[in-house]
Amino acid sequence: MEGPWVEKYRPRTLDEIVGQGHIISRLKRYVEQKSMPNLMFTGPAGVGKTTAALALAKEILGENWRQNFLELNASDARGIDTVRTNIKNFCRLKPIGAPFRIIFLDEVDNMTRDAQHALRREMEMYTKTAAFILSCNYSSRIIEPLQSRCAIFRFLPLKGHQIKERLEYIAEKEELDYEPTALDIIAYLSEGDLRKAINILQAAASLQEKITEDTIYEVVSRARPKDVRRMIKTALKGDFMDARNLLREIMILQGVSGEDMVDQIYQEVSRLAMEGVLEAETYIKFIDSIGEYDFRIREGANPRIQLEALLATFLSE
Ligand SMILES: Nc1ncnc2c1ncn2[C@@H]1O[C@H](COP(=O)(O)OP(=O)(O)O)[C@@H](O)[C@H]1O
Ligand SMILES: [Mg+2]
């Protein structure tokens, strides 16, 4: 069994990291100076926060980085006390063969305010021997005293072309056979999250010899937008039975969940409105019923029945 590509292709150096140029150049300056303040990495998932922390630690601490680097997850199920004990044990010892030690604390926004205050005290206690890198999705959930003790780095979602280039690089290394548009679709579906993109690519590669657009939709259990559009248009024409059959095909054959289906219907209806195929007034009515059926499905009603009922509301227009 082959390991996950997200790990296999995790950049080992700062230079190899895709995008985030504004951040990487500042981090490289710390490497040149062989010193760094406490850092806070914020931003969405899968954009390089952990990767940057690891690469920085390796480059700034040198060959003994392993002994001088501690990675902890703040939302550790065993509780913040375990996290603090780990930090204490790690910081009590002098750095070995490196100027200082680095503690990387992931998901700090999941810590309670009390725990964050305790962490702040820890940071103060070990300023001489250790630097902290805190990572979170939202800096607004971090207490002010912690924020003010860190240089803040805001990681951005990766751009479509950056994701595509990385996927092309991996595809070449893995000698994959693929339709170029398949990678565009992965980039689109992964919404700036490169971890997600690489996982989709690996899943698709394990499914079929040649990666096509269809493989991708199958892997992510999303319907092809053109199928959803055809279903909606069929309903608009008043052909309920055909629209219903299309719905069943998409849901059963492609394994699309009820929630995703409503979401995709919403997206296609919105596109039809933007293209002027639907009048604003009709669009507004549709949004209203989509909202209603979305709610029912999320509350646990049978998704197939609800989606058929939703299609029925399109007929009357
Ligand atoms: N900016 C990036 N450049 C290259 N690879 C990346 C980047 N961001 C994410 N990845 C890929 O996704 C995986 C997860 O990234 P990670 O840095 O752990 O994300 P997070 O921001 O959630 O900490 C990495 O192992 C790597 O394969
Ligand atoms: Mg991470």
Automatic annotation (TrEMBL):
The keyword ATP-binding applies. Part of the RFC clamp loader complex which loads the PCNA sliding clamp onto DNA. Residues 35-161 form the AAA+ ATPase domain. Keywords: ATP-binding, DNA replication, Nucleotide-binding. The keyword Isomerase does not apply. The gene is rfc. ATP binds at G43, P44, A45, G46, V47, G48, K49, T50. InterPro entries: AAA+_ATPase, ATPase_AAA_core, DNA_pol3_clamp-load_cplx_C, DNA_Rep/Repair_Clamp_Loader, P-loop_NTPase, Rep_factor-C_ssu_arc, Rep_factorC_C, RFC_lid. NCBIfam families: PRK00440.1. This is Replication factor C small subunit. Transmembrane segments: none annotated. Belongs to the activator 1 small subunits family. RfcS subfamily. Heteromultimer composed of small subunits (RfcS) and large subunits (RfcL).
